[in-house]
Amino acid sequence: MEQLLNPSPEIKSAGGGDIAGAFDDFMRSFEAFKSENDIRLDQIERRSADVLTGQKVDRINSALTEQKRVLDELVLRGRRPSLGGVTHIATGAELEHRSAFDAYVRSGESSGLKRLEGKALAVSTNAGADGGYLVPEETEREIGRRLAVISPIRAIAGYRQVSSNVYRKPFLISGAATGWVGETTARNTATTSPTLAELAFPTVELYAMPAATQTLLDDAAVNIDEWIAAEVDTVFAEQEGSAFVSGDGTNKPRGFLDYDKVAESSWAWSKLGFIITGAAGEFPEENPSDPLVDLVYALKSGYRQNGTFVMNRRTQGEIRKLKDENGHYLWTPPAQAGAPATLMGFPVAEAEDMPNIASGSFSIAFGDFRRGYLVIDRQGVRVLRDPYSSKPYVLFYVTKRVGGGVQDFDAIKLLKFSAS
After folding, report:
1. Domain 2-79 is found in CATH 1.20.1280
2. Dist. CA 391–CA 395, nearest whole Å
3. N or C end: fewer C-beta atoms under 10 angstroms in the chain?
4. Strands 412-416 and 272-276
């Protein structure tokens, strides 16, 4: 048992790259956690709580959280797509663009890209006018695939790709006009007209600036497309992940936590409804699982069947300790490495930008994010080569335009850690 209290052995084995071994360690730690937590809960029920038991549970829980983090990183490393494994067959034009782009990145030779982009007419650009050159389509697809794997909200949200700076979407607030009519009855039955709202999702610039040595660029064995995608994927994912959760919509996407929030009993369009825990900064002592049950059933059944919980790791650590009224743990570990943990049978998406549990915090979201939140990508990822600003390194200013916002305010509900 003492070995399980010290996370070092488990983390060391996980760091060795053995996913199966890391998963086995994680599951052993979870069984140890359940055993100690059962003792803690029994002591609380008998009103003889032991401080040392609580500390022991917290240590195992912290080790468990760290093991899960390391395991997720190993799985993510294995899931990242490789350009070498893409089965897309490039056309002649794509091969020409790739060759011209390779020459630009390695040596700064831009005449080939200027000629190709000028000929395409789809985007009138040059390095001086619009801030760089379009990367090859295969590289853009690669960056998009990587972001879909490692960006938690993007992975569960709705998605659109557009060619303009703003995506506008009409939305039926009150539902479509409809009514019953007999087979031979004249179709003049009046129905309620639908109420439409227009949602606008502007795209804003997201950038990363990886650096390379000229030696690396001169090395013909280095796949430049792969290198660029690998350098920017994590940076892009971290920036957009934060914006999709709490961004204020100014020069960034608008996160779902930035919208007005009201008690579910007063819910109205353009606001997100919330349920309270009934205790400031914590779950209630009596029936602590009740707020989570209320949160799930605040969502209409049409959304609930595709529901996902969103929270950070620390919040998950607190939820692991909870049981339902039948004595079953609410949180269930993943069935296999790479699968999500579940809470009350629904998958859990780990978004580290969700707030920690505190008084008045909205630390847990639940909803059908595919219908509730929309991520917008404008076509085209650009690269501007800068060999001057940081000699002897060559900087690459990589940009893409991203937007996001709530598209269905009835599809996402929040849990507020508040007494009222």
Report:
1. yes
2. 9
3. C
4. parallel
Question: Count H helices, E strands: the chain?
Answer: 15, 17
Residues 46, 42: Cα–Cα separation, whole Å = 6
Say if residues 385 and 131 touch (Cβ distance below 8 Å). Answer: no
Distances (CA, A) of 33 to 42, 55, 57: 14, 12, 6
Q: Are the C-beta atoms of residues 116 and 96 closer than 8 Å to each other?
A: yes
CA nearest neighbour of 147 among 209, 221, 234? 234
| Residue 64 to residues 30, 74, 315, 351, Cα–Cα distance (Å) | 7, 15, 13, 17
How crowded is the C-beta side of 140, counted as CA atoms within 13 Å? 20
Q: CA 237, CA 243: separation in Å to the nearest integer?
A: 10
Q: Which long-range CB contacts under 8 A does 89-93 form with residues at least 24 apart?
A: 90/138
Residues 91-142 have pLDDT tens digits of: 778 889 889 999 999 999 999 988 887 665 444 444 444 568 999 988 998 8
Residue 2 pLDDT grade (very low, low, confident, very high; cuts 50, 70, 90) = very low
Classify residue 111 as exposed, middle or buried by CB count within 10 Å of its CB (0-12, 13-18, 19+): exposed
Helix (H, G, I), strand (E, B) or coil at 151: coil
Q: State the Cα torsion 121-125-126-130 to the nearest 10°.
A: -170
Q: What are phi and psi of 399, to 5 degrees?
A: -130, 150
Compute CA distances 43 → 37, 74, 351, whole Å: 10, 37, 33
CB within 8 Å of 184: residues ≥ 6 apart: none
Spatial contact of 202 and 404, defined as CB atoms under 8 Å apart? no
pLDDT (average), residues 189-197 = 63
Exposure of 186 by Cβ count < 10 A (0-12 exposed, 13-18 middle, 19+ buried)? exposed
**Secondary element (H or E) of residue 139:** helix 137-150
Helix runs in 1-134, H state only: 2-5, 8-15, 19-45, 51-79, 92-107, 111-120, 127-130
Residue 252: pLDDT band with limits 50, 70, 90 = very high
Closest of 272, 209, 239, 243 to residue 398, by C-alpha: 209
Per-domain residue ranges for the chain? 2-79, 134-176+187-312+351-420
The mean pLDDT value of the chain amounts to 87
Indicate the helix (H) or strand (E) that contains 263.
strand 261-263
